[in-house]
Amino acid sequence: MKVSENHQAYWRKNLRITGILMLIWFVVTFVVAYFARDLNFTFFGWPFSFWVASQGALVVYVVIIAFYAHYMNRLDQEHGVAEEE
Predict the structure, then answer these.
(1) CB atoms < 10 A from the CB of 52, how many?
(2) Nearest-5° Cα angle at 22, 16 to 23
(3) What whole-number distance in Å separates Cα of residue 18 and Cα of residue 25?
(4) Contact present, 21 and 67 (Cβ < 8 Å)
(5) What whole-number distance in Å separates Cα of residue 14 and Cα of residue 81?
(6) Is the distance from CB of 10 to CB of 75 less than 8 angstroms?
């Protein structure tokens, strides 16, 4: 089975954005949380390290999901594979 050039371009863009978003997820989950221990000041009444680990990461995860959904909808329309509504 031969894959069209359009499908290959679609898949390359999909893999690139997925890789970038996974890198952001990794940095937020492991790198920021690891170094947050050294942040010793209060933020809205809580230690900043606690806020980063419990609240900030969740906000970033929701933003990642929303961005990916928006980007993929636009990419689907660009390459003619969008679902009909």
Answers:
(1) 20
(2) 90
(3) 10
(4) yes
(5) 13
(6) yes
- pTM (two decimals): 0.79
**34-82 pLDDT, tens digit each:** 777 777 777 778 777 777 777 888 999 999 999 999 999 999 999 888 8
Distance CA 53, CA 24 (A): 15
Mean pLDDT along residues 6-25: 95
Q: What angle do CA 50, 24, 26 make, to 5 degrees?
A: 65
Instruction: For residue 7, give both structure tokens.
Output: 């499908």
Helix axes 57-78, 5-26, angle to 10 degrees: 170
> What one-character-per-residue DSSP string does 32-70 give?
IHHHGGG--SEETTEEHHHHIIIIIHHHHHHHHHHHHHH
Degrees (nearest 5) of the Cα angle 82, 84, 85?
125
